[in-house]
């Protein structure tokens, strides 16, 4: 494990596994999750010859946790800090949940020149449901835009109850070990910023291949978001993984890993095209 210090003095954390000469795969966790959430991806990616970097941005895992000042723009800047510090190019950037939209924040500010491809795991590019977008967070629309996430992530009543997930729950407990449930005022502010963002214009202008993966039983939004987001991107594909909730890569690691490795192997031949 190692640390990178951002320009404002905040330390970011990462672990590195695999072939140092292989294509870099940068793994970015979702809201409140740590790099540990990629437990079931690190080994297969390393075995396939990749340089695997599991990153804790500020507020995650072993990175520093400032009380305030973290928004989606800052998260994108932290990604730039990591890529610059490690001099990473030809990167496959993989983001789960908020980590996926963090990649769009990075691309919106710095472009995609350092990236070979992007994979987004069960994250809609627009959480707010509107007349032109019905793939957002269940129950979240313009009538409650200022209040819906005021106290945390609402329960939606969708998805398979945890107690019925069997080995899926066991995997979740292993990968999310040590996670914290309470939210600070700074984390609530980040959640609000995340919820109000619309990354569709960024996706439409992104010129590298993108894979959108959705959990068929996501607790947060309909799995249709993956195909709808893919329809926006010049080079894209989508997949819906059966018997998986929001933590798709954790609950069903084998089909997810197969899809991710297949996507990566196609990057050198031009990637998927619709």
What attributes characterize this protein structure?
single chain; 274 residues; alpha/beta
So, CATH architecture? 3-Layer(aba) Sandwich
CATH topology (fold) name: Rossmann fold
- Gap from first CA to last CA: 39 Å
| Assembly context of the chains | single chain
Please state the structural category: alpha/beta
Helix content: 25-40%
Number of domains: 1
Topology order in helix (H) and strand (E) letters: EEEHEHEHEHHHEHEHH
- Please describe the biggest sheet, giving its number of strands, its sense, and whether it closes into a barrel: 8 strands, mixed
Strand tally? 8
CATH top level? Alpha Beta
Main β-sheet, spatial strand arrangement: 1-2-4-3-5-6-7-8
Q: Which value, in Å, is the CA radius of gyration?
A: 17 Å
Beta-strand percent range:
15-25%
- Coarse morphology: globular
CATH superfamily: Alpha/Beta hydrolase fold, catalytic domain
Count up the helices: 9
The average pLDDT score comes to 95
Spans of 5+ residues with little confidence (pLDDT < 50)? Answer: none
Explain what the structure shows.
The protein is of the alpha/beta class and 274 residues long. The protein has one domain: Rossmann fold. The chain has nine helices and eight strands. Strands 1-2-4-3-5-6-7-8 form an eight-stranded mixed sheet, with helices on both faces. β1 and β2 form a beta hairpin. α1 (39-47) packs across α9 and α2 (72-85) packs across α3 (98-110). The termini are far apart.
């Amino acid at each position: 494990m190692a640390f990178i210090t951002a320009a404002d003095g905040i330390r970011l954390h990462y672990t590195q596994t695999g072939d140092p000469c292989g294509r870099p795969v940068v793994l970015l966790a979702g809201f409140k999750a740590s790099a540990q959430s990629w437990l079931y991806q690190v080994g297969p990616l390393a075995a396939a010859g990749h340089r695997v970097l599991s990153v804790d941005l500020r507020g995650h895992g072993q990175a520093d946790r400032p009380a305030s000042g973290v928004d989606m723009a800052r998260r994108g800047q932290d990604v730039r800090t990591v890529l610059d510090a490690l001099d990473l190019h030809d990167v496959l950037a993989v983001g789960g949940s908020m980590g996926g939209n963090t990649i769009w924040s990075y691309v919106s500010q710095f472009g995609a020149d350092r990236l070979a491809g992007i994979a987004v795991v069960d994250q809609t590019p627009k959480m707010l449901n509107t007349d032109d977008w019905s793939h957002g967070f269940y129950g979240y629309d313009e009538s409650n835009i200022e209040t819906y996430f005021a106290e945390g992530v609402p329960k939606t009543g969708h998805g398979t109850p945890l107690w019925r997930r069997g080995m899926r729950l066991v995997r979740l407990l292993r990968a999310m070990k040590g996670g914290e449930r309470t939210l600070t005022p700074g984390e609530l502010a980040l959640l609000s910023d995340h919820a109000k963002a619309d990354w569709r214009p960024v996706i439409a202008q992104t010129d590298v291949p993108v894979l959108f993966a959705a959990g068929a039983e996501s607790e947060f939004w309909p799995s249709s978001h993956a195909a709808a987001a893919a329809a926006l991107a010049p080079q894209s594909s989508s997949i819906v993984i059966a018997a998986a909730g929001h933590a798709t890569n954790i609950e069903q690691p084998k089909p997810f890993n197969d899809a991710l490795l297949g996507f990566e192997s196609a990057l050198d031949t031009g990637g998927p095209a619709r």
